[in-house]
Amino acid sequence: MIDILNKELVTSESYIVTVWNLVLVAVIILLTIFAIKLISFVLKRAMTSKHKLDGRHLSIIQLVKYIVWVIALVFCLKAIKVDITFLIASSAALLVGIGLGLQNVFKDFISGIIILIEGTIKVDDIVEVEGIVVKIQEISLRTAIAISRDDKVLIIPNHKFIEDNVTNWTHNNTPTLFKLEVSVDYSSDVRLVEKILLDCAKSNDDVLEDEVYYPLIRFSDFGDSALLFTIIFWSNNLLRIEGTRSQLRFDIFEEFRGNNIVIPFPQRVIHNADAVIKSE
């Protein structure tokens, strides 16, 4: 048995790989997998005992997994008697050349580490990137996987969250404020319009109505051809808020029709004056 474990598989001037080295590497990998599952379980139990597990906690767990795997890789290289210092020194020129060609990849890795440490972007957050509203499903070291409002999966490089302007709708963990613009004819009863808009907002299940968050109606302005109103409301339905707005428009249109309230449309009146030519 000892002879089998000491059997040389790979031989070079720098190191010798035996069966025992490979067995040791396999044991390290198995122990690493077990340790990661155990650490994840303990961290989740510890975090959920104090408060609800959220995206920030999941990011911390993910970062711990990466650290454990890096440590395991070092031990694996030690197990097959690879001199890490020599490996890094001999690969310095190669790493520089690769770095010049893969600058964006390394930038994404660094950005991923920053995101996981800072927690500015977390799993389940609703964010707006380049005008697209998405829900973050997973954050890895290089990319983030997100789903858009039309259920398309987007793979976003992490540097986008660091370099670009990103709106995080759920960063403060409170409902988000939304607005809906409505215009009516100048002949309309403004108090009746206010009542209809408020009733439509309150009847929608996605619009919050409690002591803190409740819908408001604002008489915004006197437009060129219409009176302008704004519905201000709060909702937790962030990713599908356009569906909520659509339902509100349906309800408002039906109520306006039933109460003879007209929604005006822009009109232009062109006066054509006949040219009078006086001949002498």
Structural description of this entry:
This protein is of the alpha+beta class and 280 residues long. The chain folds into 3 domains: 2-90, no CATH class; 120-168, SH3 type barrels (Roll); 176-258, Alpha-Beta Plaits. 47% of the residues lie in helices and 21% in strands. The chain is built from 9 helices and 10 strands. The strands form 3 sheets. Strands 6-5-4-3-7 form a 5-stranded antiparallel beta sheet. A 3-stranded antiparallel beta sheet has the order 8-10-9, with helices on one face. Strands 1-2 form a two-stranded antiparallel ribbon. Strand 9 and strand 10 (227-235) form a beta hairpin. Helix 8 (190-203) crosses helix 9 (241-258). The longest helix has 32 residues, at 19-50. The chain is elongated and about 100 Å long.
